[in-house]
Amino acid sequence: MSEAYSYDRPFRLKVIALCLDDSWMSRYGNFIIKPEYFEQADEEAITSAILTYREKYGCSPTDTDDVLVLTNGQHKKTISIIYKGREEWDLQLAGDEVVRFAKEQAAKLAILDSVDDVNKGDIQSAIDKMKSALSVGELINSPGIDPIRDVDTWLYEYWSTKVRTGWTHVDNILEGGISAGEMGIIMAPQNRGKSMSLINLGYGAASIGSGKNVVHFTHEMRQSQVAKRYAARITFRFPSQEEDLDHYAEEIVEAARRLLVGHIRIIGGGKKMTIHEIDSYLHRLEDEGFEPDLIIDDYPDLLVSPRRYKERRFELSEIYSSLRSIAEDHKCVIWGASQSRRTSHSKEIITLEDIAEDIGKASIADIIISLCQTREEGEMEQCRLFMAKVRDGKNHSTIAAKFYGVQQAIITTGIIIRKSDREQTDV
Q1: Which helix (H) or strand (E) holds 124?
Q2: The whole model's pTM is what?
């Protein structure tokens, strides 16, 4: 707040006078003004009356009597001062300061409203309220884009932020990968290769051809276990028990020098990590100069929901929605893994209907790839990647792949042509 311009009563009355200007309200006021931001009872009542009138009639009241009716005949003197001041006061400076005023008032209210949350131990709710307060006025600075006039902005940004999966045939379907702010999910039954798939996604993003920076959050495994799997993917082997580990370490460094352009950071968060902690880690990395392009979370279902619900499925939707928001805020791509139902173990193709616990994940994610593998395929080191959901592309393509468990490598080999597609081609 400026020392030369305090938010005292004269200032607040000027803000209320601005609310009588239809043009100003349409451009600014409708997005930021709330009655509770005003400290005196008459100020709050008059502001509430003006906003009520605008909601009903689509314009601000021009007659003082209308406001007087909506305030039950009270505050006549203050109403008169505001209407007279609208014609006499210089409101330009008040208009320039009003966003900062609204942010400050919203922050004060958020702090007071968060006391009970803090006492209950619900820190995340308190944080969310403060974030909401600090976002007051953002819509004013983001009036949207024109798909035609702004084509040179959104079109190139969409393509320039894409992050490859490293699976050639998948990237072809996705036309280069998925873009910043989007979310992908790997879906598979228990112990069927979800973590291994995420290792391949991280490796594919950081390797030659992409060179992206990757942050890999792990809740199920230790950081060293995840590092071991990345090393196996880079060198295409695990070390044997009798092997000289110093030699293997040199091999990892040499292979990474040849194959990796980007960098990979592994963060162990445990099974009680919160969305706020993930966001804090990312901000810390950015402060250190590490700008992430891809975020990987090995099991989002284990995260603590920002809000508590009676049913777990609502909490899961909240978790995935919050992760997607983090991707948007940090201009990153995010990939996670989700378990499919037990019955999917015996299915040849795992579809969206097989998502465990909460189908809401399917509406939040932009891309869902299911890892499918029969027992016979497992014995032959093969699997299939089924494109269960592609928001802006072709769904239900099936891609054949080699599945090298020891080497932590999944390498696609071709798109499987379905019988129906082959018959249409023949015709």
Answers
A1: helix 123-134
A2: 0.74
Q: How far apart are CA 402 and CA 200, in angstroms?
A: 12
Q: Identify the structural domains of the chain with CATH numbers, from first to last.
A: 9-141 (1.10.860), 155-426 (3.40.50.300)
What b-and-e string marks burial along 28-66, b requiring 16 or more CB atoms within 10 Å of the CB?
bbebbbebebbeeebbbbbbbbbbebbeeeeebbeeeeb
What b/e sequence results for 84-114 when a residue is b if at least 16 CB atoms lie within 10 Å of its CB, and e otherwise? ebbeebebeebbebbbebbbbbbbeebeeeb
Helix, strand, coil shares, percent, the chain, to 5:
50, 15, 35
Rounded to whole angstroms, how far apart are CA atoms 186 and 192?
11
Go through the chain and tell me how many residues it has: 427
pLDDT in tens, 233-280: 999 998 887 888 899 999 999 999 999 999 999 999 777 888 889 999
User: What does the block give as tokens for 181?
Assistant: 């702010």
CB 335 within 8 A of CB 300: no
Whole-number Å distance between alpha carbons of 83 and 62: 9
- What is the Cα gyration radius of the chain? 28
- The tokens describing 244, both together, are 């000289």
